[in-house]
Every structure is written in structure tokens, then in C-alpha cells.
Amino acid sequence: MAIGDSHGNSRFVHATIERAARLRDKVDRDVFIVSVGDFGFWPGLRGESFVGGVDELARQHGLAFWAIDGNHDYPGDGRSSRAGYRAWSDPAPSTDQPGLVHVPRGTLVHIPIETGAGVTIGLCGGAASPDQDQRQPGMSWWPEEMITDREVALIEDSGRTVDLMIAHDTPWRPPDFATSLAVSPRVRSLMAENQLRLAEIVAAWQPRLLVHGHFHHSYRATAPGPSGTAIQVIGIDDENIDTSIETIDLATFADKLIPPERGAATGATDTSLPR
Predict the structure, then answer these.
(1) d(CA 9, CA 43)
(2) C-beta of residue 122 within 8 angstroms of C-beta of residue 108
């Protein structure tokens, strides 16, 4: 179960956990939750209270809750604070381990499926804040928000591919997306820079499905992938129990996987979606 940007909204996230628990009991199968970023890792007592409450409720229900970092998530200050996501990071998350963890950029997780070879998931947070000019550095904006060249290189050097990619940002502008937010040329350049890095990751991982947040916009589309493959793209809305949850049956997804011709990635994918 993937959920959209929650921005520290306890009511939304707690309702999501309750829904996931009911679904697990109904289908009698494992269910785990993944936040696509801008989860609510914020500095101070407000952030600590939010993440602590999510962790406690997920443990009570025996659910694994994974969160990747978004551009509005606080990385942490290197001290003992539990507000920043680095304090919760686990590079080897397990669906069998209840509670909240932050999943670092570039993490790969293989989910076994009884009826097939399983599903490999690649997770990568990070994005550029379109509103960073209105935010206060160190309090509501952090320079670590963007994907780095080193993170891209580590992913490319691994030579691994994935079936499902979960990211905060997307290399493509969502179709029918409109915003009135005024963005300076400097910030627009940073946003494009992050999207190009993410396009390089898509070219390396070659996913069949990409799920993302960041734009607070629900949609489904098909994007051109490397080597002539098609990538299904799902964008998820924010903080809405009706439109900000995407349930993916991994067993059904695995059954539909047809091994594509996995050629070597030759560069970034096309950055436009068909309209």
C-alpha cells in the first residue's frame, strides 16, 4: 500500500494504518505501507511526536511502515533527535518487521511471491522544493533534499534492475497538471536538475511501474522507457484518505510481468508524457 505526501498529518496516516490492518485481515495476506515522501520528518517536538505516534500505531497493528524522504523532510542534525529521518534509516527494510523505518535512496528490496520469482522494488526519495525561496534554511528547508550525482552513480554502478520503483519525484511532468505557484528561474533549474538525475536512475533500474508523490496530483499514464519498454506511472495525491492511497497487489503485478529486453541504459528517458 503506497500513500501520498502526508506532511505530518497524523489523522491521515493513522487512518491509513487502520485501513491497511483491515485489508490484511480481510485478504489474510501480508500488507505493508510505503510513504512516497514528504512524510513528516520535521525538527522539534512536533516532528518527534508525529513519527513516534506512527511507529507506535504501526507496531500495535503488526505492520511494516516504510517512508522515503521528500523535499520537505528533515534529515536530522547528527544528534540523538528522533525527528530527522536519518535516525530511522534502515538500508535493509523487512516487510516482517513492524514499525516505522526510513528507507535510504537507492535501496533495493526483493519481495518473494509464492507463485513466481518475486518482485524487486527500488526506492529513491529526494526532490527540489518549488517553494524553497519562501522557506527558512535549517528550519523548513534543507539542502540535502535533492538527489546527488554520487547517489546516481552508486545505483548505476550496481547494475541492478527493478520491477517497481517508488520515488518522491518523477522525471516527467504529470499530465493535466497545473500550478499557480510562482517559481524563480533558479529554483526551476534545480527542479529540472533533480528530475534529470531521477531520469538517469530510471534508465538504470528500468522499472515496469513507477509510483511517486511530490506533485499532489493523482493520475495514471504511460511513459517511454529505455530500450523501447513502456513504464506505467502512478502519481498519488496528498493527505486525502480517498485519493492518496494506492493499493498494489504484488502477486497480481508479478503475474503480469513479462521480462522485457533489458538493454544497457544509454541515457535519460524521454521527459514528456503523452497527453
Answers:
(1) 15
(2) yes
Contact (Cβ atoms closer than 8 angstroms) between residue 38 and residue 71: yes
Contact predicate 215/199, CB 8 Å: no
- Cell 501520498, residue located: 4
Of 142, 205, 166, 153, residue with least CA distance to 67: 166
| Cα gap 101→91, rounded to integer Å | 9
pLDDT digits (tens, 9 = 90+) for 83-124: 899 999 999 999 999 999 999 999 999 999 987 789 999 999
Q: pTM here?
A: 0.91
Tell me the CATH class for 2-256: alpha beta
The 10s digit of each residue's pLDDT in 239-257 is 999 999 999 999 999 988 7
User: Structural domain boundaries of the chain?
Assistant: 2-256
Name beta bridge partners: 64.
Answer: 99
